[in-house]
Amino acid sequence: MMDARPATPAPVEADDRELGRAVLLIARSAIAAQLDLPRTDEPDAPKLAQPAATFVTLYAHGELRGCIGSLESVRPLRVDVRENAIAAAFRDPRFPPLAAREFDATSIEVSLLSKPERLVVAGEEDLVRRLRPGVDGLILEHDGRRVTYLPQVWDAIPDPREFVVALKRKAGWTNGFWSPRMNVFRYGATKWMEREFLNQGTQP
């Protein structure tokens, strides 16, 4: 039976629309500053000073253009978003650094993560049974190597078994690899996307 307990809440209120607007502005402003482009002043709110873990994902013409994030709430939310935005734009090894000419066509998504919850599983089959498609972000950790999929990845890989296998391949492990030393964590995420604000006729 699936474990129906909710993930541990994030350290700030994840359902706050104004918070979403603020972190999107911070992400875009941080990238613009690196490109010497005009930028909007960062908003100021007490929640932005609270520790948080975020991922910043960039899209260009509907395709992934960069994604970098944090799994632990170490830095203030404002700082974590700013640093992850810069890293996603300029330091994701899968892509060349973002160019100024790409900036306006780049869409930003910010995900706020809940605290990872450790899962004690008997093996891969047990993990597959306990995953909640569309809800759980997943972390696999083994011998110093850690890899994750955000909950959004369920949109592309809806089958739990394939979800786990694909994450193992991302780590460089074989499809059949498993170890008693594998550490497993899951987490939730709330995401805000610029295009959602634009579709509703408001600016983030």
Sheet with the most strands, sense and barrel status: 4 strands, antiparallel
Structural class: alpha+beta
Number of helices, counting only DSSP H or I runs of 4 residues or more: 5
Mean pLDDT: 90
- Please state the CA-atom Rg, rounded to the nearest Å: 17 Å
Global geometry: globular
What string gives the helices and strands in order? HEEHEEHEEHEEH
Strand order, largest beta sheet? 2-1-3-8
How far from one another are the termini? 40 Å
Fraction of residues in helices?
25-40%
Indicate the topology.
Elements: H1 17-34, E1 53-60, E2 63-69, H2 77-90, E3 106-113, E4 117-119, H3 124-130, E5 137-142, E6 145-149, H4 160-171, E7 183-187, E8 189-193, H5 194-199
How would you portray this structure in words?
With 204 residues, the chain is an alpha+beta fold. The chain has 5 helices and 8 strands; from the N terminus they run αββαββαββαββα. It has helices at residues 17-34, 77-90, 124-130, 160-171, 194-199, and strands at residues 53-60, 63-69, 106-113, 117-119, 137-142, 145-149, 183-187, 189-193. α1 crosses α2 (77-90). The longest helix is centred in the first third of the chain and has 18 residues, at 17-34. The protein is globular. The model is unreliable at 1-14 (pLDDT under 50).
